[in-house]
Amino acid sequence: MFQLVTSVWALLFGVFLIMVGNGMQSTLMGVRGDIEGFSTFELSLVTSGYFLGFLVGSRWTPEMIRKVGHVRVFAALGSLMSAGLIAFPLLTDPWSWTILRLMLGFCLSGIYVTSESWLNDRATNETRGMLLSSYMVAQMLGMVAGQGLLNFGDAAGFSLFVWASILVSLAFTPVLLSAVPIPAVQSPKAMSLRQLYDRSPTAAVGTLVLGGVFAAQMGMSPVYGAKIGLDVREISALVAALFTGSFLFQFPVGRMSDFMDRRVLILTLSAVGAVTCGVAFTLSGNLIALLAAGLVMGGMASPLYSLLIAYTNDYLEHEDMPAAASGMVFIYGVGAIAGPLMTGQAMDLAGPQFFWVILAVLFAIIAVHTGWRMSQRPAPAGDDSAYVSVLPNSSTVAVEAAYEWYTEAASESDEEEGAETKSDSGEGASETDEAASEGDEPAPEAEEPAPENLQHKEDYGPEYVDDDGTPPPEKVRPIIF
Hints:
Order of helices and strands: HHHHHHHHHHHHHHHHH
Number of helices: 17
Distance between the termini: 85 Å
Shape: globular
Strand content: under 5%
Number of strands: 0
């Protein structure tokens, strides 16, 4: 494992630094926007702009890469992202911020596509799952570290934006200077929403709604914290709790998915998420309760995305996976654009505490729809196939790589089961052969019993009688009636 990770250390370290900068600016938007006097709905527009740019970038970047190559696209988007981060404190109005966030979402989506293409190109059938997990860990650690750095500057000043820009700029140095082969990139045509829904209604609806959940908790939690009077340290702790939960719950959920119907697990996580948000709504004045709720809510939302991708895989043929991956990212993006808008509108009209109400409703929709689908369709065959962690903000490349890994893991499992069956059959045959050949000498033939109904010697004649007057066994014959 160590040798595998060191072979892609430059890429993983670069992704880590990018996520540190991105985590800083994502939370800083809510805090600084409140300082600038933006309304909750205006900040929700800023947040939705990011996810709109992310969705557009996921569709356009593959074409850009085909025209000018990975390295140029990677460097250009990194430079543009770094410049955008510095521009925030210079253009302090909601519409400028919305445009800048749209640009950042576009850049980050393209960076994900190129970095995940490099990562997937280095993976083999045996290492793809490990590399995807390492990539997820680098992203999560970067987001959490970014929250910590917010406490080393003034949110009302310029320095935090500069630090985020510096970190993003530094992130590209090890990647661009490392000697890695240039992978081919494909731009698969996405499945239509109708096709995806027909294949797996549970996954299609769940991914759409989950996009709203993840975007709202990622983009609107800093706004919520600022509106209820939390300081920067407390807001950064709340956001860090969300991403820490996402990291901690991935592995136990993955373990449980090996033994449970995935739909039961999807329903359970969604129900727990809804209940947690309901509890947080009633205890919103208690910081410890908010941190605990953030930890659990983040721990429910992120693994749900991996489960929904795995569940979709159960209904896909191998040739459909690229189109399905692109379609899933599109559905998620649509939900991510709508989620902050709904949350911001509710918070504006009914108060910041309705941040938790909207999230509870979205989680409940996933749970209710999954429960209903369980009554309409049996669990698919092979529902106990493997699980790999994929973050909701991943590009189509990572989602497609996850689909490939699921197929490879299922194929290996089938081969192992076949080998075990052959082994068991061979052992049974071997035991039979051993039992048959335990004795070196052949077993003696059983002697024929002497006939019971014999005629007297006068009935046989002298040629059938021995010297002692007794007919020999081999010459006597039973009487046949």
